[in-house]
Amino acid sequence: RTGSGGCHSCFSGWHGDLCDEKCPDCGAHGRCQSDPVAANRGGGSCVCNKGWAGSRCQTCASGFAGADCKPCACMNGRGCIGNGTLTGDGSCIANSCKEGWGGRWCEIELGKGAPGTTQWETQTYV
């Protein structure tokens, strides 16, 4: 630990008031919250990189998918395959645009109540 009297910052891999508690393994996609003066006293929880989630940053956050947890490209209500998981590829789910939207990623505004706006295609794009 560094600082005088009390712990002001912990060495990497340690947390707690006295920096005497080992951090959890946050894998390659996160880091241990180890700041002893933080609101939760550096509780040793994992802070995940963008696109990652889970107690050990082991899965994709909502809106991300695939082995690398890349952002889903779908907009305006359209779901993506594997949203929030490592198993999907992030491609858009066919027929899932909100009413009034169409296009490959639901990016085209067609107007509320426009015919065919929720079932404009029958294939999934990659």
How would you describe this structure to a colleague?
The protein has 126 residues and is mainly beta. The chain has strands spanning 14-15, 21-22, 30-32, 46-48, 52-53, 59-60, 64-65, 70-71, 101-102, 108-109. The chain contains no helices and ten strands. The strands form five sheets. It has a two-stranded antiparallel sheet. The protein has a two-stranded antiparallel ribbon with strand order 3-4. It has a two-stranded antiparallel sheet with strand order 5-6. The radius of gyration is 21 Å and the shape is elongated.
Tell me the series of helices and strands, N- to C-terminal: EEEEEEEEEE
The averaged pLDDT comes out at 75
Strand order of the largest sheet: 1-2
Oligomeric state of shown chains: single chain
Distance between the termini: 49 Å
In short:
With 126 residues, this protein is mainly β.
Features:
single chain; 126 residues; mainly beta; two-stranded antiparallel ribbon; 10 strands; 0% helix
Write the layout of secondary structure elements.
Blueprint: E1 14-15, E2 21-22, E3 30-32, E4 46-48, E5 52-53, E6 59-60, E7 64-65, E8 70-71, E9 101-102, E10 108-109
Antiparallel strand pairs: 1-2, 3-4, 5-6, 7-8, 9-10
